[in-house]
Design goal:
Shape: elongated
Oligomer: single chain
Number of strands: 22
Structural class: alpha+beta
Radius of gyration: 31 Å
Strand order of the largest sheet: 1-2-3-4-6-5
Length: 560
């Protein structure tokens, strides 16, 4: 769309891009002024649910005019173009500021954070719960004004609870405990929790939980279980109160929080927050012992190759002497020649039989791989046909084997080298029989084809289509009726039969059986990560998140 004219607007450059929309800098040629235009991506334009949600965002923002909320100026809803025209803020997002600067000073926070509270106070008074408070949704102008810029999943408190796409609403790392459990039942105090996480990032320059080494389900367990670490700043008491696990113990409104800032809260954090930094316990193997043991096993099982020379000698260590002076008769010469020829012919025949057997075996593998297509059970959901079980193949479509990575070191090396790998959760074949195999994304993306003939790995957009076709509580409809922890079982009404098969992280640690199910898509988020979908216990949502390509998750296939 760059340099194109649409009505009064000429598109100049791309300001940013999200999962559903792209934001452009444009010029209103009639008024000779700059604007920001948020355009729904082409692949979502004809999706009724997403289109409606996008248009609803503009209508919500119109209702909440405030100096600290970006102004909506126009709405475009014409055929293949759906867009929101907003005021252009010359500056950067709060996320960009934190990433470039790191922690912010006390005076900077005192200047900016009350403005954030005023914006959200106005949102709540207008009857909305935002549900996606995070630094990237606040724009900081060059004059020091900060503005709330996104209303994509705001919920009207005066309208009956309804989650349009069935997707878990919000950005998982900023979700409140109650939002993780049930998006539909949250109130404005969930936004208060998310603001506490934002304040933590402003004060420290970092996220409270280790998002580089913890998987999304592990972070969500931390949110449900652990208090935020202390910052050592004057803001600790306010962060602790805002992020209490029980919403009753939080600030009950933005007004209350603003009053606390004016009064200058200096009381100690709550007991739950005094425990210091969050510690996530993991069982760590003694890698030295394991690797030494594996090395010895490798030596014991080393086969004798064609290069291995075995020469027998007498007990005294000398070679037996040969009598080179013994003359051979013509008859003996003839017999030796015949025997030599017969021996050579025999070796040739053995070699040919070996080659034929090897080729037949190779072809048999390919035929077996092709035959697997016939064995997959399937279910029709809307206009899609899905496998009803997770993929459990050990060869690519062309018959080449996919390497199995059992040890932590094997899994880690495969990821570092961007090589395909699979495993069973906990390396237990019984888990494979129930949940299928776990694959890293390099296996998913291998050109030899992980999906059997007639199937493919679903793209991120195809997963979104599935969620939209199921509608409200898509996660519950996708889950199996048993096997999920903490009463997290589903209804199985879709026939998808999602099981909590867990996953494997970069270092090789297994987690999540019974707690969550994760499935890869074929779509990358960037060079190091790819989109996936997750079903967790205790709610009916479907999580969309970009995870490291070295992680191991289940794979579910779609009919071509």
């Amino acid at each position: 769309m760059l340099n194109e004219q649409f009505g009064n607007y000429k598109f100049l450059s791309v300001l940013g891009e999200g999962g559903m929309a792209t934001v452009y800098l444009a010029e209103n040629t009639l008024l000779n002024s700059l604007v920001a235009i948020k355009v729904l991506k082409e692949e979502f334009v004809h999706n009724k649910n997403i289109r409606k949600r996008f248009l609803d965002e503009a209508k919500k923002m119109v209702k909440v005019k405030h100096p600290n909320i970006i102004l909506v100026m126009d709405l475009i809803d014409m055929g293949d173009i759906v867009a929101i025209v907003m005021e252009y803020i010359e500056g950067q997002s709060l996320k960009d500021l934190i990433e470039s600067k790191g922690k912010m000073s006390q005076s900077e926070i005192e200047s900016l954070f009350p403005q954030i509270l005023l914006a959200l106070q106005h949102v709540h008074k207008a009857g909305f719960v935002h549900r996606d408070i995070k630094p990237s949704n606040f724009m900081l102008s060059t004059d020091g004004t900060i503005k709330l810029a996104d209303f994509g999943i705001a919920k009207d408190k005066n309208v009956a609870a309804f989650t349009e796409t069935g997707t878990q609403m919000g950005t998982p790392m900023y979700m409140s405990p109650e939002q993780i459990k049930s998006t539909r039942d949250v109130d404005h105090r969930s936004d208060i929790y998310s603001l506490g996480v934002v304040l933590y990032e402003m004060a420290t320059g970092t996220f409270p939980f280790d998002k580089n080494n913890l998987s999304l389900p592990e972070i969500q367990v931390c949110i449900l279980r652990d208090p935020l670490p202390t910052t050592g700043k004057l803001w600790d008491a306010q962060i602790a109160k805002a992020t209490e696990k029980n919403e009753i113990n939080r600030f009950q409104s933005c007004e209350e929080w603003l009053q606390a800032i004016k009064q200058g809260i200096t009381s100690k954090p709550t007991a739950s927050a005094q425990s210091g930094k969050t510690i996530v316990e993991t069982s760590v193997s003694d890698k030295t012992i394991i690797e030494a043991h594996d090395h010895e096993k490798d030596r014991e099982n080393t086969p004798i190759t064609e290069e291995t020379v075995i020469e027998e000698t007498p007990d005294n260590g000398t070679k037996p002497e040969t009598n080179e002076s013994v003359a051979l008769t013509p008859k003996k010469n003839r017999n030796i020649l015949i025997y030599s020829l017969l021996g050579a012919l025999t070796l040739v025949l053995i070699f040919l039989v070996f080659i034929i057997f090897k080729e037949q075996k190779k072809e048999g593998k390919k035929e077996d791989a092709a035959m697997e297509v016939m064995s997959f059970e399937e279910v029709t959901i809307g206009n899609q046909i899905w496998m009803t079980k997770n993929l459990d193949v050990a060869t690519f479509r062309n018959g080449d084997p996919i390497p199995e990575a059992k040890t932590d070191a094997e899994w880690k090396i495969a990821g570092e080298n961007q090589q395909p790998a699979w495993c069973y959760n906990d390396n237990d074949p019984a888990n494979g029989a129930k949940y299928g195999k776990l694959y890293n994304w390099y296996a998913v993306n291998d050109s030899r084809g992980l999906a059997p003939t007639g199937w493919h790995i679903p793209s991120d957009a195809e997963w979104t289509t599935l969620e939209n076709q199921l509608g409200d509580d898509a996660g519950k409809q996708m889950k199996s009726t048993s096997g999920w922890a903490e009463n997290g079982n589903g209804t199985y009404t879709s026939g998808f039969s999602g099981l909590p098969g867990g996953g494997r992280v970069y270092g090789g640690t297994f987690d999540g059986i019974g707690g969550y199910g994760g499935w890869w898509s074929s779509s990358e988020t960037n060079t190091g990560s790819a989109w996936g979908r997750y079903l967790g216990y205790g709610n009916g949502g479907v999580y969309r998140d970009g995870d490291n390509k070295t992680y191991g998750f289940s794979v579910r296939c779609l009919r071509d």
